[in-house]
Amino acid sequence: MSILVLGAGGQVGREIAGRLGEADHALTHSALDITRPDAIARALDRHHPKVLINAAAYTAVDRAEAEPDRAEAINRDGAAHLATACAQRGIALLHLSTDYVFDGRADAPYTPADAVNPLGQYGRSKAAGEAAIRQALPAHLILRTSWVFGRHGGNFVKTMLRLARDRDALNIVDDQIGGPTPAAAIAEALLGLARTIVSGGAWPWGTYHYAGAPAVSWRGFADVIFAEALQAGLISRAPQVRAITTAEYPTPALRPLNSQLDMRDTEARLGLSPPDWQAALQALLRSPAFHA
Length: 292
Ligand SMILES: NC(=O)c1ccc[n+]([C@@H]2O[C@H](COP(=O)([O-])OP(=O)(O)OC[C@H]3O[C@@H](n4cnc5c(N)ncnc54)[C@H](OP(=O)(O)O)[C@@H]3O)[C@@H](O)[C@H]2O)c1
What we know:
The protein is α/β, with parallel strands linked by helices. The protein contains 9 helices and 12 strands.
């Protein structure tokens, strides 16, 4: 009995794929398109997983405003196809979702029970995908995460390092607050859950939050990135940072001001603590991947 991972070429998917055991399998987008039910059926019948981890998604938050149909085909319908195929075969589904399902107007961290109200097409498509999974497949864990960073793919850490080398001064949004989350920690959390499910037993299925601590603004995150990058010898000087508001940095998609995800349920029922993003960032920036 094994684990099958989809979206294995992405930021989180690559971290999971790199940690799999011999009986497990990982498929990239080119090997399996989750918008195609026939391809999903073939892959599940070929690999016979006990647990399917879906790290595949449409993640272009701003582009989704211009192509909502594409975002929905992948994030809503793709998730629905996976859940239906898993239900027909007795497979459990571990799926990732996002803080962007919330509108960010709450004055406390969001719990999994809080009502969703996405501000943009990406968040809407992810919320619809969650709902489709809940309806089709009781044996699911949906893990909402936020502000993902790591060695693979594009992310805020890599953007800040590039800008630090190119610019003397930067304007960075200071009124959006969230939990930066290491992709590697998400991968370990998902694989730990998947392995426990593979070994059997009752399971508290449902929707959970998984985000790094402590919460910080994008500007606060950037400050730590520059401090750690200086220490690691990746940059020779930090750019001057000016804190700006979301209103001063208009983007096609609105983003929640409060992106904080409450993890108390996750700790109590799944035994997972919030990852320490500062320690993970320090290790990442000192790793050979960033010193090639
Ligand atoms: N990144 C964040 O800050 C963040 C925050 C909160 C939640 N999340 C959630 O975390 C999960 C993983 O995100 P990530 O950062 O790892 O995203 P990512 O780097 O964009 O990876 C997504 C992967 O999905 C693949 N994909 C896209 N359409 C597909 C399809 N139709 N069939 C199969 N694969 C497809 C992509 O392949 P191509 O590149 O070839 O299209 C890519 O390899 C997603 O569910 C996302 O919504 C991410």
